[in-house]
Write a structure and sequence with these properties.
462 residues, Rossmann fold, Serine Threonine Protein Phosphatase 5, Tetratricopeptide repeat, DNA Cyclobutane Dipyrimidine Photolyase, subunit A, domain 3, 3 domains, six-stranded mixed sheet, Crypto/Photolyase_N_sf
């Protein structure tokens, strides 16, 4: 039940402030009040230091908002924060939310904190916040890595070439990290502090309506944010749909997916919690469990490895291996039988009925099955005027419409379309030796049944 020492990292050489009133925890990557190593560490330290715990969240808005985030993303985020705040209150933990950056609120509230606890993300913007916090906070700062199973630098000290090079390293380590995390008892309640939030998150819709952000991409009904909803979905999935995952996971119409990716992206559920539930599930075979853990741990943490060790993971010229950029450049002048503008792609106005359906599912519900994401991205490469423009389009569309866009997985999966974590294949026009995907891949599942599923899902969105 202990928090593994390799999850902990002191970011400065300062002792806890003697006169502080509380231990401060910045909710940033892990937006949940349970199964959260950073929060449990904050509680341990507060109990040791004889003070309450206060959690805080900085809500970016307007021009300073999170890059590419819109009303769809913020609605899900705010629903999750409302759920989190309620659970924090039940545990006796304070919660302060302000319109500020994560760094700004952490620095401001740390002035009366004995200790500041951070969780950890791997994107460039998150790294900038951590740097700003270290420079602006005068008390002790401890970072706790809790949104991967195996801490990134423990798993590997370098950028991994492919899943096959990271997989054995993770397999050797992950049993040590797949342990339940006990909820610590809060000995000192925060309600005596008198701290108040500037934002009443109990009404997420009202908060959303008061924000200045892109509302052209609307919130979805298909997914509701929060740890409570994530747990409910996971339980229902393991009871009804998990059996056969190994065989059906690449069939979009089979309903074999758990739909945990938006909750993982927003830190509303722990990957360890999911993995333990999958291991303990009474349904499903050994193959089902192995296949699911491959996606949840190996593939997801390969993405974390990529963005952590790659400067410019969001740019064509720096995100891709040299061989891929070279072969795509050699074929850049090839004629494209079909060429579409980005607006046509976004509206799903191509000659390909199945691609259009996948784009519609993404645009209207915030989700697309992984099997179709691959086909979707490969076709954008085929239908765009250049590989560089295709990369930009794919990333923009991905980050705009997917609930789990702007994520390490998103940046990595988009780069995979262009050759990352892959090898050279047979040379073709446009693609060179980058892996090609034809319409024949649609024969691997019931494509007509998928069209019917998309129609139903989009109708439910109204």
């Amino acid at each position: 039940m202990a928090i593994q020492a390799t999850r902990l990292k002191a970011l400065n050489d300062v002792e806890p402030r003697a006169g502080g009133s509380y231990v401060l925890y910045l909710l940033q990557q892990a937006n949940r009040a349970d199964c959260n190593p950073a929060l449990e560490f904050a509680i341990e330290e507060a109990n040791r230091l004889g003070c309450p715990v206060v959690a805080c969240f900085g809500l970016l808005d307007g021009a300073s908002g999170f890059p590419e985030a819109n009303a769809r993303h913020y609605a899900f985020l705010l629903q999750g924060l409302a759920d989190c705040r309620q659970r924090l209150a039940e545990r006796g933990i304070g919660f302060v939310m302000r319109k500020a950056s994560p760094a700004e609120i952490a620095i401001a509230l740390s002035k009366d904190a004995k200790l500041l606890v951070l969780d950890r993300g791997y994107l460039a913007i998150q790294k900038r916040w951590y740097t700003e916090i270290v420079e602006g906070v005068e008390t002790r700062i401890v970072q706790v890595e809790g949104d991967v199973v195996v801490p990134v630098e423990t798993a590997s000290t370098k950028h991994e070439y492919a899943a096959r090079t990271l997989r054995p390293k993770l397999h050797r380590l992950w049993d040590d990290y797949l342990e339940p995390l006990k909820s610590r008892t809060v000995k000192h309640k925060a309600d005596t502090l008198g701290l108040k939030s500037e934002i009443d998150i109990s009404d997420p819709e009202k908060v959303l309506a008061g924000m200045s952000l892109d509302t052209s991409v609307a919130p979805v009904r298909r997914f509701t944010g929060g740890h409570t909803e994530a747990k409910r979905r996971l339980k229902a999935y393991l009871q009804k749909s998990f059996a056969g995952y190994g065989a059906d996971r690449n069939r979009p119409e089979a309903d074999a997916a758990s739909h945990m990716s938006p909750y993982l992206h927003f830190g509303q559920i722990s990957p360890v919690e999911i993995a333990l539930a999958v291991r303990a599930a009474k349904s499903g075979s050994r193959e089902d469990r192995q296949s699911y853990l491959e996606e949840l741990i190996v593939r997801r943490e390969l993405a974390m490895n990529h963005v952590f060790y790659t400067d410019g993971y969001d740019r064509y010229e720096t995100a891709l291996p040299d061989w891929a950029r070279k072969t795509l450049a050699e074929q850049a002048g090839d004629a494209r039988p079909h060429r579409y503008s980005e607006a046509q792609l976004a509206e799903g106005k191509t000659h390909d009925t199945y691609w259009n359906a996948a784009m519609r599912e993404m645009r209207e519900t915030g989700y697309m099955h992984n099997q179709l994401r691959m086909y979707w991205g490969k076709k954008i490469l085929e239908w765009s005027p250049s590989p560089e423009e295709a990369f930009k389009r794919t990333l923009r569309l991905n980050n705009r419409y997917f609930l789990d866009g702007r994520d390490a997985n998103s940046f990595t999966n988009v780069a995979w379309i262009f050759g990352l974590h892959d090898r050279p294949w047979q040379r073709r026009k446009i693609f060179g030796t980058v892996r090609y995907q034809s319409e024949n891949s649609l024969k691997k599942f019931d494509a007509k049944a998928y069209l019917e599923t998309v129609e139903q899902l989009c109708a439910a969105e109204g």
